[in-house]
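Milestone 3.1: sequence recovery, worked example.
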């Protein structure tokens, strides 16, 4: 190990700025939805950078991109990266920072003629955000065998497009079978997407796991009627029933305490008229907790309360399961490599649980994995205002570099 080895901060920032110009929006921010033309342009640029660093580029059947640097032995490689697709109106760091920091690590090793025992693989996974095609972390899910390839290829986007057709159109339907490169470990660098590091004034988050997620759609069916003529005690008000449930979410978080999360993110009324009692309300609930038992308890509390509202308000309530993601605990070996790197570089750090989903949590289902966080100012992400201090971006990339070297020198 070479403690003084550092990445080139200027080069990293220049690449981030260059990538941000692909899909740039006039009003600010970036939009590179998966398999759109801007996504293709970003992929093309990434491949050019990989080839310029003498990486062997391989692309699998769902468009995951891998740049391979050979090691001194044929042992299993260390894989590190993230994704380059974005939400509709994004900042320039989410996902992209992890991929370009990985490239910068390779560039630094090349410049210093540093060879590793194990091969290194820079990864860029397809459709992590799940905006155009509603299966987030699609590329990594296929890679670990949790989403069948044909099901992914047949997926329809919000614009009616077929995933497999668009993959062919942009030229990224590769020949490699997903999962063909089996990593010794996977490591992902990311901005925190939350305020913890920023508020604490700390530099590095050593991510020990990812929270579990339950997504539900709740439909309340009452009776639409005149707002002026229907007595209050004769109403079956779907809006009032929905409001009771939504406010109860805060009671769930109070009962279970930190780190329980509960959110209503989408809400629609029918007939949605100012002078009509709502007859139907549909809304979503997002429950998150890193402890499986507490996540199950939160859902049980919600479902029990729904029955209480049915009895009190005379409505009917239907619940549709949208998604259940089990909490993930990362591998101690990979976590340890991150901690040692932060200490070696003299950086402040803290253990953390990610409240957002990442490709690393899918990779962890099959391979040893962990994540590194750097601060995000005011916790802002998925927003053009997303910002991380350039020095922190460099610190995160240096921790990634040294953690990867740690892992890549292990027999």
């Amino acid at each position: 190990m070479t403690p003084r080895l550092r990445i080139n901060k200027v080069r990293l920032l220049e690449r981030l700025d260059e990538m941000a110009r692909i899909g740039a929006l006039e009003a600010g921010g970036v939009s590179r939805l998966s398999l759109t033309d801007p996504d293709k342009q970003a992929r093309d640029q990434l491949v050019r950078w990989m080839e310029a660093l003498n990486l062997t580029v391989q692309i699998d059947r769902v468009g995951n991109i891998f740049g391979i640097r050979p090691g001194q032995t044929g042992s299993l490689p260390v894989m590190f990266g993230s994704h380059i697709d974005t939400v509709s109106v994004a900042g320039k760091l989410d996902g992209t920072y992890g991929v370009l920091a990985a490239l910068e690590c390779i560039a630094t090793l090349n410049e210093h003629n540093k060879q590793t025992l194990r091969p290194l693989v820079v990864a860029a996974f397809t459709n992590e955000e799940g905006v155009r095609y509603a299966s987030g972390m699609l590329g990594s899910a296929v890679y670990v065998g949790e989403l069948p390839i044909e099901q992914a290829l047949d997926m329809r986007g919000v614009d009616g497009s077929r995933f497999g057709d668009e993959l062919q159109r942009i030229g990224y339907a590769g020949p490699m079978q997903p999962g063909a490169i089996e990593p010794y470990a996977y490591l992902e660098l990311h901005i925190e997407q939350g305020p913890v590091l920023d508020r604490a004034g700390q530099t590095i988050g050593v991510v020990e796991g990812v929270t579990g997620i339950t997504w539900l759609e709740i439909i309340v069916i009452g009776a639409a009627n005149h707002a002026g003529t229907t007595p209050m005690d004769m109403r079956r008000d779907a809006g009032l029933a929905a409001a009771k449930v939504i406010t109860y979410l805060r009671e769930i978080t109070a009962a279970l305490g930190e780190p329980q999360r509960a959110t209503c993110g989408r809400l629609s009324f029918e007939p949605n008229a100012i002078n009509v009692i709502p007859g139907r309300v549909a809304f979503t609930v997002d429950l998150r907790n890193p402890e499986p038992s507490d996540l199950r308890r939160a859902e049980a509390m919600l479902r029990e309360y729904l029955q209480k509202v049915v009895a009190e308000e005379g409505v009917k309530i239907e619940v549709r399961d949208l998604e259940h993601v089990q909490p993930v605990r990362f591998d101690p070996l990979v976590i340890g490599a991150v901690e040692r790197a932060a200490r070696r570089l003299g950086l402040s750090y803290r253990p953390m649980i990610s409240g957002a989903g990442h490709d690393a949590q899918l990779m962890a289902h099959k391979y040893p994995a962990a994540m590194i966080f750097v601060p995000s100012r005011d916790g802002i992400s998925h927003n053009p205002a997303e910002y991380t201090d350039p020095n922190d971006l460099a610190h995160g990339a240096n921790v990634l570099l040294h953690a990867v070297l740690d892992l890549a020198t292990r027999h």
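The two ends are 15 Å apart (CA to CA). Residues 212-325 form a domain with the Alpha-Beta Plaits fold (CATH 3.30.70.360).
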